[in-house]
Design goal:
The complex is a heterodimer. Chain A has 17 helices and no strands. In chain A, 75% of the residues lie in helices and 0% in strands. Chain A is mainly alpha-helical. Chain A has helices at 2-15, 23-51, 55-61, 73-81, 83-115, 122-134, 139-149, 156-160, 167-180, 183-191, 196-207, 209-224, 228-233, 242-249, 255-258, 264-272, 276-312. By secondary structure, chain B is mainly alpha-helical. Chain B has two domains: 2-76, no CATH class; 80-323, Orthogonal Bundle (MetI-like fold). Helices cover 73% and strands 1% of the residues of chain B. Chain B contains 15 helices and two strands. Chain B has helices at residues 2-49, 67-73, 80-87, 89-122, 126-137, 144-155, 161-168, 183-208, 212-220, 225-236, 238-250, 257-262, 271-274, 277-287, 291-319, and strands at residues 56-57, 75-76. The longest helix of chain B is centred in the first third of the chain and has 48 residues, at 2-49. The chains are: A mainly alpha, B mainly alpha.
Chain lengths: 313, 326
């Protein structure tokens, strides 16, 4: 009797905002959220506006949300003299794609072996990986080692290899295996005569797609946004990715022209008419646009990876 | 007869298979970890041996400048590098900056993101809550280099939005990139801007995991919203708060290199408020090429971090056994 009364009562109560904050408070909450969300995206919108602003407008009233005149000059310049720029844009994509592929291959194999409780050296390799989270040699010894002993400099490998593995990603991947793969599946595969590698690549990987998506996205994001490693190991403009190019342009705008293959009088005429301010901002837009369009779709994978990593890590 | 031998052969073969398969399994699984293990060895463990550099005056040996030659021909200097690390006038500044920024940001980040998570959870229009969550997650995906241009758009001394506004309203422009006093506020804003979305999502995930019948029972017992937050929500997310707190306290002597290096545009006149240990270690290494002192800095960073994480964990365990990390 009591039970049925309760069951009836709850939906009725829900209709009149059961256990909700009052309407004025909710409006206040919305206002706070809207204010903070604006803070998060307005800087990017501002930079987009600046990238389309004519140089005369910038000269007379500075950067503004409502410029005096719009122009496509910055993007025209990028199209015209963008040898270095397109090279760097390509480098960013290339490093992200190749780096993520190899990083995932190594990460998956490592975390799969750690997931196998019947692996004899599991304890050792577990410790071998996670100890590096607690203790490390630090910047200078790592830099000296990579540079002099491993010979990492001025190549794609010099950017890809230093960030190939991350113990955090191995934890996330292993946790995904533990929560989603029943042990019986591996036994069954073994009884059916499947070898270790074919079990991993033909059975485990196809059913772990959500976990792999999560870790790949975290890895790809890290490669796409990296500028510190190139700053350490790369001097040759051929290999620098867009992020580092942008970093260098903080101090030297002429960097673009210097490396564009245009020389002499032509270069100086380009320099003098360079829409320097809007050009920098246009580069920022080019870096952010792929992320801005992609992240709403992949954020759910990233969130699941981050929550797992923070709880288990 | 022929049948029997075939059967015999079969069982023998199976036995041998079982035996070798155990060994081959270990072997195959070992080959799987090998690429990763080699990477950890070369890029994480070998550099740990580089710790000796902190006790040496590392010089490039000009005759044959390989790492081992440099190392062998560099002089032992004992704890000199550590002494210099603390004796310079810079040391007070970067140690103070690192600690003060971290302590303030840990507290601020905790309060803001827990508050935001509770707010998002209370909103009745779930699609709007999702929408806000997506927007505030956006800065997390950007690099500090990109963010430094966002800041520049507002603070540029000649083109920036704020200075142009000040000038057009008859006030003096502020030379942001040379006035150290403003930077604690600017950097704090940047930090909140970039990280709030991420930690809000972590806390929100913990809050949505709370059993809703708890709130219904509290409502029936006449508990107000504030009491529910105090007695249900906060206790339920306490483990998450502790874990993030311990991890952040463990990183108290580390700082976000990108933020402190790129956003102030590497401006020397701002060092009194923007120099932190990570930027100091980098600058010592690149500008003065003092590998030994830079290594000493990293070691100190590691040791302090390790001590802090153990102490923080012990304190949390004293207060609440279940919330500790290890």
């Amino acid at each position: 009797m009591d039970v049925t009364v309760m069951q009836d009562a709850i939906p009725v109560n829900k209709k009149r905002r059961m256990n909700k904050v009052s309407i004025p408070v909710e409006i206040l909450f919305h206002l706070i959220m809207i204010a903070f969300c604006l803070l998060c995206i307005v800087p990017f919108v501002f930079v987009v506006v600046i990238s389309f602003t004519a140089q005369e407008s910038i000269r007379s009233i500075g950067y503004s949300f409502t410029p005096l005149a719009y122009s496509l000059d910055a993007y025209n310049y990028i199209l015209k003299l963008g040898t270095q720029l397109w090279r760097s844009y390509f480098n960013s994509f290339f490093i992200t794609a190749v780096g993520t592929f190899f990083s995932m291959l190594v990460t998956i194999m490592y975390s799969y072996a750690l997931f196998r409780t019947d692996f004899k050296f599991r304890g050792f390799f577990n410790f071998f990986c996670f100890f590096t989270m607690l203790f490390g040699g630090g910047l200078a010894p790592t830099y000296v080692m990579c540079k002099t002993v491993l010979g990492l400099s001025d190549s794609y490998a010099a950017i890809i290899i230093p960030m190939l593995l991350n113990p955090f990603n191995i934890i996330v991947m292993r946790t995904f295996f533990i929560t989603s793969i029943p042990r019986e599946l591996i036994d069954a595969a073994f009884i059916d005569g499947s070898g270790e590698y074919s079990t991993l690549f033909r059975i485990i990987i196809p059913i772990s797609k959500p976990g792999i998506a999560t870790v790949s996205l975290l890895t790809a994001l890290a490669y796409w946004n990296e500028w510190f490693i190139p700053m350490l190991y790369v001097r040759d403009a051929k290999f620098i990715p867009l992020q580092y190019l942008l970093m260098q342009m903080q101090t030297k705008v002429d960097f673009l022209v210097k490396n564009s293959g245009v020389i002499g009088a032509e270069a100086s005429s380009i320099m003098s008419s360079l829409p320097a301010d809007s050009l920098k901002m246009a580069l920022v837009v080019l870096i952010v646009v792929p992320i801005a369009f992609a992240y709403p779709f992949f954020q759910k994978y990233i969130i699941s990876g981050l929550t797992i990593g923070s709880v288990k890590g | 007869m022929g049948l029997e031998t075939a059967e015999n052969k079969g069982t023998k073969k199976e036995k041998r298979q079982l035996l070798t398969s155990k060994n081959s399994k270990t072997l195959l699984l070992t080959t799987m970890v090998l690429p990763g293990a080699i990477w950890f060895f070369l890029l994480r463990y070998v550099p740990m041996a580089g710790i000796v550099l902190a006790f040496k005056n590392y010089k490039v040996y000009t005759k044959k400048p390989t790492f081992w030659n440099n190392l062998i021909h560099s002089k032992w200097v004992g704890f000199k590098n550590f002494e210099f690390l603390f004796k310079t006038t810079d040391s007070r500044i970067y140690i103070r900056n690192t600690l003060v920024y971290n302590i303030c940001w840990i507290i601020l980040g905790l309060v803001v993101s827990v508050a935001f998570a509770i707010i998002l959870n209370e909103l009745t229009k779930k699609f709007l809550a999702k929408f806000y969550q997506t927007l505030m997650f956006f800065p997390y995906f950007l690099s500090w280099v990109v963010a430094s241009y966002f800041v520049l758009a507002f603070l540029d001394p000649t083109r920036g939005l704020i200075d142009n506004y000040l000038i057009s309203h008859g006030k003096d422009a502020i030379d942001w990139y040379n006035q150290a006093g403003y930077w604690p506020v600017i950097l704090t804003l940047c930090n909140v801007w970039k990280n709030t979305g991420y930690s809000t999502i972590l806390y929100l995930a913990a809050i949505t995991g709370i059993d809703p019948t708890l709130y219904e029972a509290a409502e029936i017992d006449g508990a107000g919203k504030w009491q529910q937050i105090k007695n249900i929500t906060l206790p339920a997310i306490r483990p998450m708060i502790s874990i993030l707190l311990i991890m952040n306290v463990g990183k108290i002597f580390n700082s976000d290199f990108g933020l402190f290096f790129t956003v102030p545009m590497n401006s020397g006149s701002l060092f009194s408020t923007t120099q932190v240990i990570d930027t100091y270690i980098y600058r010592v290494m690149t500008a003065t090429n003092n590998i030994g002192m830079s290594t000493a800095g990293s070691i100190m960073q590691n040791l302090v971090g390790f001590v802090f994480i153990v102490v923080a964990n012990r304190i949390v365990r004293k207060i609440d056994e279940d919330s500790s990390l290890f």
